Amino acid sequence: MPLKCSSLPVLTWHSVCDAPYTLCFPVALFEEHCRVLAEKGWFGVGLEQAEDFFLHGRELPPQSFLITLDDGYLDNYVYAWPILRKYGHKAIIFPVAERVTAASSARGAAGPRPTLEDVWAGRLRVEDLPPAGMEMADRNNPLVCNDWFFTWDEARLMAASGVIGFGGHSLRHGAVFTGPEYTDFLRPSGRKIPFDLKVENMPWGLPDFRRGAELACRAFLPSAALLRAVAGLVPQEEEEAGEFFRSREGELKELVASFQGRMGEYETEEERRKRVLSILQSNRNILNQELGMEARSFCWPWGHHGAFGLDMARAAGFEVFYHVSPGPNPPGRPGLIRRLNAKRDTNRTLNRLRIYSRPLWGEIYRRIRR
Predict the structure, then answer these.
(1) What is the share, in percent, of the chain residues with pLDDT greater than 90?
(2) Which one, of 90, 66, 84, 89, lies nearest residue 5 by Cα?
(3) E strand intervals along 201-295
(4) How many CB atoms lie within 10 A of CB 257?
(5) In a designed cystine with 74, which of 41, 126, 148, 312 is the match (CB 3.0 to 4.6 A)?
(6) What's 302's DSSP letter?
(7) What one-character-per-residue DSSP string does 112-132 give?
(8) pLDDT exceeds 80 at position 107
(9) Is the dihedral of CA 200, 241, 245, 142 positive or negative?
(10) Model-level pTM greater than 0.85?
(11) Residue 37 φ/ψ region, left for φ over 0, alpha for ψ in the -120 to 50 degree band, beta for the rest
(12) 71: which strand partners?
């Protein structure tokens, strides 16, 4: 048994709720994970402990691990936070900053909403908790979902409890077009998950150009003439746009074909630098203003960044960077924090923690699995 933590394994979740989506982890199973890990002597460390370990090699007890939750869903507040506190774990949440701000207004919350702790205390029934997580908006169309997010008031409550720390995860979890190639057009349709590399604020009928993560890619900018022409031809009301694609799609194909060779242009390197740096600086500023902290940790949307994105994130003031690929995390390596998706089999999750808590074993296992 090692006398100290030589590798800090990181377990990650997104939504902790009972909705039927891939990103959703059942509430009872999340509690089972937290309970079993605590019974086996594993405890989730906090934000500052993790940062000190990764940045400065500060010692942690054996069987330490880190819990992260991505995107900032309301169920993180309603369900995950009380369960973590119940079993003595801490965690980091990486919220999408502008979705938290928008949720506070859109949901019209007069103040912090009740949580699972109110159910345990007998103040209300579980059925009376606020709708949380990714719910089906249309039972006849499983591709349509609502995704609710917690408010900054609720984030401040979680932070004040000492259980939850916060890091950056961009402003919008956004995407950009990355080239003029396309095989279809943007058309009304449901979204399988809240963040699916959709380029926002583009008209229906625009070619669905190749896409990539906004922090990792140089953007391809559709020409203003193409945008005007498409928006002038294709109705932008959802029902009317759907009818257009059923009966007049041939007209759109002819229009777009007439723009061949002049669809748009790539942003300059200076434009890219300003765009990416602005996103990262704004994300960090919002966290600092809303939560009274100097944010140092950042989680890459979809795990995509590249050397350029990493340089910009460091210039914005971030120092510790979380990815999506599994592996061991020895101290003093803040630029590449690997994470494991929690498995629905609790014993399998426990075994992976054991493996990745040993740098050598974890690296061998990572290479074999890859």
Answers:
(1) 80
(2) 66
(3) 207-213, 220-222, 264-266
(4) 8
(5) 148
(6) G
(7) PPP-HHHHHTTSS-GGGSPP-
(8) no
(9) positive
(10) yes
(11) alpha
(12) 95
264-277 tens-digit pLDDT: 999 999 999 999 99
- Superfamily of domain covering 10-168+318-369: Glycoside hydrolase/deacetylase (3.20.20.370)
Asked if 2 and 57 touch (Cβ cutoff 8 Å), the reply is no
Phi (first) and psi of residue 3, to 5 degrees: -85, -10
Q: How far is 68 from 82, CA to CA, in rounded Å?
A: 15
| Residue showing tokens 């979204």 | 191
Distance from C-alpha of 129 to C-alpha of 125, rounded to nearest angstrom: 7
**Residue pair 167/322 in contact by the 8 Å Cβ criterion:** yes
Tokens of 331: 């101290």
Which of 150, 149, 146, 127 shows the shortest CA–CA distance to 135?
A: 146
Query: Is residue 95 within 8 Å of 290, Cβ to Cβ?
Result: no
Read off the tokens for 9: 């394994």
Which tokens hold the place of 136? 């089906």
Q: From CA 143, how far away is CA 297, in angstroms rounded?
A: 32
Pick the closest to residue 110 from 73, 156, 151 (CA basis).
Answer: 151
Measured CA to CA in angstroms, residue 68 lies from 95, 117, 341 at distances of 11, 21, 10
What residue ranges do the domains of the chain occupy?
10-168+318-369, 183-267
For 136-187, write each residue's pLDDT tens digit. 555 455 555 667 899 999 999 999 999 999 999 999 999 999 999 999 999 9
Provide φ and ψ at 195, rounded to 5°: -120, 100
Residue 4 has pLDDT above 70, yes or no: yes
The 8 Å CB, 24+ separation contacts for 336-339 are: 337/10, 337/54, 338/10, 338/366, 339/10, 339/11, 339/12, 339/68
